[in-house]
Give the backbone structure.
Amino acid sequence: MSILPLIYAPHPIFKMKAEPVADINEDIRKIVDDMFSTMYVEDAVGLGANMVGILKRIAVVDLQDNNTKSPLTFINPIITWRSDNMQTYKEASLCFPGISAEINRPSAIKINYFDYDGKAQKLKAEGFLSAVIQHEVDYLDGKIFLDYLSKMKRDILIRKVEKHIKKYPPHFHDKHCNH
């Protein structure tokens, strides 16, 4: 498994819709494996494929409750239902370092997708899992968490990201990292 380099904001890929996966084969499973490796190295709970420069409808999620891995692979995910009840979580992104924002989303969703083995799945997610899945599926749809904010607030946060990246240039994580 490999660690994939992250794409950092601002970048046009974050406004692009990912293409559906036509065939879940070894190449797609390799992408998924590499996405999980990247997510774990970055100490994240989710990753959309376009965050690593791949315009395929693939997202990986693992909340790692009590340090126990529970990886979920979402290939060609479609959110089929959103609750009317809303919830707010502070969201951040590996691709938008140095910032976070309170984002209001439906508290529960139903999602159809294909898993790692290409089997059709349905899932009802609530709470934090629901927020994480929505965040990652948004990436695949060309939407970022900052799109839920006013233009003024979004512009301020993007400038903060740009300053953060200048001050702390991103680097590629590998076995030689000290963190």
Q: What stands out?
A: The chain has three helices and seven strands.
